[in-house]
Amino acid sequence: MYKMDFSVVLQSWDLFLWGLWLTFAYTTASIVIGVVIGFAVCFSRLSNNWFIRLLARAYQEVFRCTPLLVQLLWFYYALPLLLGFSLDNTTAALLTLSLYAGSFYAEIFRGGILSIDRGQTEAAKAIAMSGRQTMWRIVMPQALKRMLPAFINQSVIQFKNTSLISVISVGELAYMAAVVNGQTYRPLEAYTVVAVLYFALLFPMTQVADYVERRLRVSD
Amino acid sequence: MDLSAPATREAKAASASADVILDATGLRKSYGKLEVIKGVDLSLKAGEVLAIIGPSGSGKSTLIRCLNMMETPSAGVIRYKGRQVETRFASRKERVGYGELRRHVGMVFQHFNLFPHKTVLQNICEGPLVVLREPRESVEARAMDLLAKVGLVDKRDVYPNHLSGGQKQRVAIARALAMRPDVLLLDEVTSALDPELVGEVLEVIRALVQDGMTMAIVTHEIAFAADIADRVAFIDEGVIAEIGSADSVIHQSGTARLRTFLSRFHS
Q1: What secondary structure does DSSP assign to B114-144, as a single string?
Q2: Which residue segment(s) compose the domain that A74 sits in?
Q3: Measured between beta carbons, which residues in chain B are less than 8 angstroms from residue A122?
């Protein structure tokens, strides 16, 4: 019978902490960049120019319809062959995570904007607002509120997806579990600790998402 | 508020022969193959109240929505004070853009369309503050006057979802008036209201008539239209089938289509 002993792996607590910090940093950075990309792509898809719409759509479908794992491998191993210079693994990781997040955020933002009643736009136009004023003063504040639960959920997924960058040897939480396992030969303990850490971080976030969703339903 | 002094009907009739504020010539509007407005000429003079009546689907809403370019006409010309309206936001030279047009031609909708994320006062102040860029103090003072006029002073800090339909529509009217428009377009503003709330909105409109506000009103309240309008236009299948004084159109006309339409209201 296997005898569990967490003390061995917990001696490497500094590795776990470092991994946690890296995961947090990659996730946050890719969410921030992803939001910027998401807005740019969202407005491109709402553009009057069919070519811009097409480009944005193509980007979204490519990133939504291929696995993140494949994207990471492609950006790290394949893209440099096309570019003629290599990307270091951290750049490839951040780039891929951000582009992946952006494709999903764009759809959430677009859905939020389109969900706002046409009457709102008309009322804004009727008081002579410009298109830009209508978007930023009337449509967007309402849309942001409505898209918040989906945004939080997607960000939770993004947090978990960050674990995949370990396949191109970028250090983060899951990667550290592998390192600790290599040092201690204690896979059960090492991977359990990582799972518990993920859960401890993400469970509160999903609770916040549920809470926000409930609150919004009441105020609507 | 500083609308023109209360005018008697006679004074209004006299001024009605003077300046045309808004006019449409050869107006057409199609959605794909379906032509909804089939060549309409219409003018609105200062101080005049024009009621537009007609069966559902006759194109009366589309017509009034073309007057402030909420719908882009497929053909024909809209003029604001004699200047042709263009299908772009900014005005240039003699052409009026729809930005300028809408600063002077206000609109109130069937479904109120108040901004749910803004309080009553913020709804009313939004246009003057953001579009006209007037100082906050004078705008808020004017907004409070308007709230007094529509009887909702105590609701200034309330969000729209706490208001009844009639209250919402009165706020929407105040919001349109806050822009100090030359013309107000009312598009079936009582049609979405519970019957017992219609009266309070009609009362506000009646007060605007007293103030000499120039208005085009699409409505199903025939008796009300007959009572307040200087002219009534009967729209049928995308054309103005009949237009004239309220008396001549509603009470004396012998046209079969119009009689059939009106008979549904008298029953």
Answers
A1: --TTS-HHHHHHHIIIIIS---HHHHHHHHH
A2: 6-219
A3: 70, 109, 113
- Alpha-carbon gap, residue B46 to B84, rounded angstroms: 17
What are the tens digits of pLDDT across the range A77-112?
Answer: 999 999 888 889 999 999 999 999 999 999 999 999
Query: A145 CB near a chain B CB, below 8 Å?
Result: yes
Name the nearest CA neighbour of A10 among A176, A198, A204. Answer: A176
Q: Enumerate residues 58 to 77 of chain B having a beta carbon within 8 A of any beta carbon in chain A.
A: 68, 70
Say yes or no for a CB contact (<8 Å) between A133 and B109.
Answer: no
ipTM: 0.88
In a domain, B2, yes or no: no
Task: Chain B: give the shortest CA distance to residue A121, in Å.
Answer: 9
Q: Which of chain A's residues have a Cβ under 8 Å away from the Cβ of B89?
A: 130-131
Q: DSSP letter at A48?
A: S
Q: Which helix (H) or strand (E) holds B231?
A: strand B231-236
Q: What is the CATH number of the domain that holds A200?
A: 1.10.3720.10
How many C-beta atoms surround the C-beta of residue A139 within 10 A? 21
pLDDT digits (tens, 9 = 90+) for B104-126: 999 999 999 999 999 999 999 99
> Which of B101, B113, B117 minimises the CB distance to A123?
B113
Report the SS3 class of residue A137.
helix
Locus of tokens 């200087």:
B230
